[in-house]
Amino acid sequence: MRTAGREPRGRARRLGAAAAASLLALGLSACAAVPSGGPVVEGAGGDAGSAAGNGYVRQLPPGPQPGVDPEGLVRGFLKSMGSFEENHSATREYLAPEPGTDWAPGGRVLVYEDSSKLALDTRVADDGETATVRLLSSQLAAIDASGQYVPADSGQVIDITMELVRTGDDQWRISQPPDRLVLSRNDVDLAYRPLNLYFFNRDRSTLVPDPVFLPVSSDRSATRLVKMLVEGPTGWLDAAVESAFPEDATADVAYDAGRVTVEVNSAAGSAKQRFGMGAQLVWTLRQLTEVQQLTLRVGGQEIDIPGEEGESLVTGNGNWDSVNPTGVTGDLRAYFLRDGQMWALEGDSGDAMPQERRVPGAPGGGGTVLEQHAVSLDEDKVGGIRAGGREVVVAETSQGSEYSTIVSGGEYTSLSWDGYGNLWVTEDVSTGDGGRQEQEDAESAAEDTERGDPDTSPSPSPSGGDGGREPGTRVWMLRGGADPVEVDAPDLADTEVTALRLSRDGTRAAVLTDNGTGGTELSVGRVVHSEGGVTVSGELPLATELQNVVDVSWRGGDQLAVLGESEDEVGQGYLVSLDGSTETTSAGAPPGTDMVGITAAPGLPLLSSTEDDHVWMTNDRISWQRVIDGTNPVYPG
Question: Where is the segment annotated Disordered (predicted)?
Answer without folding.
Answer: 426-476
